[in-house]
Write a structure and sequence with these properties.
The chain is α+β, with helices and mostly antiparallel strands and about 190 residues long. The protein has seven helices and six strands; from the N terminus they run ααααββββαββαα. The chain has helices spanning about 5-15, 15-20, 20-30, 40-50, 105-120, 150-155, 160-180; strands at about 60, 65-75, 75-85, 95-100, 130-135, 135-145.
Length: about 190
């Protein structure tokens, strides 16, 4: 496809693609196989690759961090396990990279990031450590908490005993109370 599509060939050779590791570039080349004459844009192709379980940016640098593993993706962006670039002993971090947004939504996102920063420390919330913008993408760096989500844990273990379920519910309630005390509303609580 790259031999016949100037648009995709230019994108693969630009500075963003130059940051990709060789295996990632090979994956990108393999994914770029829409029918000849197709109008599919590169963003759709990369999204298709991520949806298919292929992550092109693992091993690549982003804003002073090395992206180590794709942890999740959603409507606003992707979350990676990452490490401060060049550090051998730094702890793993979580970095959420937001999709490019129009100016109205970008201002809303900036307010949200500032609000996250204002929360301070709380035992039941991950701590924000850094934030910024890189190549047109806002990002926030948080502590990385290793282990399954509560949803994964319940799926693996089955229904929780009442005492254990109450302990987890209390932790969530304390976190929500802390948010509300700081005038924040969490709009995406998941089990």
């Amino acid at each position: 496809h790259l031999q016949v599509c100037e648009k995709c060939a230019a994108i693969v050779s630009d500075s963003t693609a130059a940051r990709l590791t060789s295996p990632a570039l090979e994956t990108l080349r393999a994914v770029l196989t829409p029918p000849t004459g197709s109008d599919m844009d590169i963003a759709s192709l990369i999204a298709s690759a991520v949806d298919a379980g292929t992550d092109l940016f693992v091993g690549s640098p982003f804003a002073g961090y090395d992206l180590l593993e794709l942890l999740g993706k959603g409507g606003f962006g992707v979350v990676y396990r990452a490490r401060k670039r060049g550090s051998r002993i730094a702890p793993d971090l979580a970095i959420k990279i937001f999709r490019k947004l129009d100016s109205r939504r970008s201002a809303s996102l900036q307010r949200e990031i500032e609000g996250f920063r204002e929360l301070g420390q709380h035992n039941n919330l991950v701590h924000a450590l850094d934030d910024g913008e890189h190549e047109g993408h806002a990002f926030i760096v948080m502590e990385y908490v290793d282990g399954p989500s509560l949803q994964e844990y319940v799926a693996e273990q089955g229904p929780l005993p009442v005492k254990e379920a109450c302990r987890y519910s209390l932790q969530v309630a304390k976190a929500i109370r802390h948010l509300h005390e700081h005038g924040k509303v969490h709009r995406d609580i998941k089990p």
